[in-house]
Amino acid sequence: MRNFLYASLSALALMAGAASLPSTAFAEDWLETAAKPFEGSEINVIFLDRPGYRAIIELLPEFEKKTGIKVNYEIVPYENTREKQVLNFTSNGDLTIALVDLVWIGEFAENGWITPIEEFTSDASITDPNLKLDGFFPLLLEAFGSWGGKTYGLPFDNYSGLLFYNSCQLKEAGFDKPPATWDELLKDYAPKLTDAGKNRYAFALQSRRGETQSADSFMRVLWPFGGSLLNKEFKSNLMSEGSQKGLQFRQDLMKFMPPGIVSYDHAEAVNALAQGQVSMITEWSAFYGTLTDPATSKLGDCLAVAPEPAGPAGRLPALGGFSLAVAEQAPDDLKKASWLFIQWATSEEIARPYVEAGGVSGRMSIYEQPDIKAKYKFVEPMVASWQKGVPEFRPRFPAWPAISEVIAEWGTKMMLGEVSVEGGAKEIGTRMEDILGKEGYYDGKRELLQ
């Protein structure tokens, strides 16, 4: 299958150079000057209840003081975020900024709900002279903000799948390092780290029905085992040897997970590790702040971070994250005010305070700082994963939301034992191909790959 994210990196680099204005030292009064025509404006955005959003909320008073622009935000559970935004866009609502997940970019762009940034970068009066699109990790800018050769959003809340583990519990079980492979985790580590009588388990895989089940659980076990959701003809590849091995591995690992794992979202998985109930989780880099906060975690110096384990197909960590884009439905003045906020929230200028407040910046330069690399254990494995990543970890095409619902339903049934791995894979494949057929992927009405 051709590469979803890397295919246009060369074009992206050229576009980034064209879109960025000449780089200069950041002028302290640039934002204030640009914002004067919009003083008193109010812009609206949806945030999640996650560390990156709490970090930007902490910094918001600085933006509002500088600009006189009020940022109204609503905190919404991830599982409801896409639906709430789509309803707002289709009813010409009040959102002026779109929060765009990696897998929503195709849908949002093709429906005309978000505005290409070239509409704003061509206007020097509202564009940071130090915008530097080439300062973002290329993988993130392409994956989270770009579609069809255009950039729509800037990377804001950025994730790499990492192995977080309790080094003290591993040491007590006789291990001086984390498992290098999924096979080691299952066969060597999991039995020694699990004691159901004491409510202690080796691993927790967030698997709540919804996007958490489809992306964070189901898709996570496909690629490392040589599987994939689709083949190059956009037909189901879930009956392949690699896909079946990965899905069966998940079933085998469940005996070393807490009861009710199918109801675990991110918060539950992170809390299980933080409170000592489980020894290992594979979670997004953005949760590092939660796991190091004494108010929410008992781990202390026992917290350690490593890359996700490797499978038979190699080390293929999960990739996830969001961009902030201007909503097409917004009036012109609020579009411009929203663009000012998006630039500020993703800028190199606030990358350090954002990271120190618990966010994960998409800017390369912040992770080159020696003190940042020394202080935050997640930086090295995260940055390494962003050099390569898994381009097709989750398909970005517009049909993904409908397919995600199918995977969530039948992936959950698999885990609960209501259907076999083979039976569930067949059911997902049939329903997925029906969705893609109706969407025009098989009759030439729609391009297969972006």
From TrEMBL:
<comment type="similarity">
    <text>Belongs to the bacterial solute-binding protein 1 family.</text>
</comment>
<dbReference type="InterPro" id="IPR006059">
    <property type="entry name" value="SBP"/>
</dbReference>
<protein>
    <recommendedName>
        <fullName>Sugar ABC transporter</fullName>
    </recommendedName>
</protein>
<feature type="signal peptide">
    <location>
        <begin position="1"/>
        <end position="27"/>
    </location>
</feature>
<dbReference type="Pfam" id="PF01547">
    <property type="entry name" value="SBP_bac_1"/>
</dbReference>
<keyword id="KW-0732">Signal</keyword>
<dbReference type="InterPro" id="IPR050490">
    <property type="entry name" value="Bact_solute-bd_prot1"/>
</dbReference>
<keyword id="KW-0574">Periplasm</keyword>
